[in-house]
Design goal:
Helix content is about 25%, strand content about 40%.
């Protein structure tokens, strides 16, 4: 399986009590490349429709906070 990782980090809650390991990127494991997500060691490759909604939602959050233009 070929992957390209775009994000890998142990993310801590603002309250400082919780954390999780997150990895995010693209995968060519299946016939169609798509988004993979790994959280605390559990991973999956999204179907293309779900991946599209996931990326659009992440983009919307980024726009809301002014992280992206």
């Amino acid at each position: 399986m070929a992957t390209t990782m775009f994000f890998e980090e142990t993310v801590k809650c603002q309250g400082g009590k919780e954390e999780m390991d997150i990895e995010f990127g693209r995968s060519s494991f299946y016939d169609e490349d798509s988004v993979y997500l790994k959280v605390d060691g559990k991973s999956l490759v999204m179907d293309r429709d779900t991946a599209k909604r996931f990326v659009e939602a992440a983009d919307s959050v980024g726009l809301y906070f002014g992280f992206i233009k």
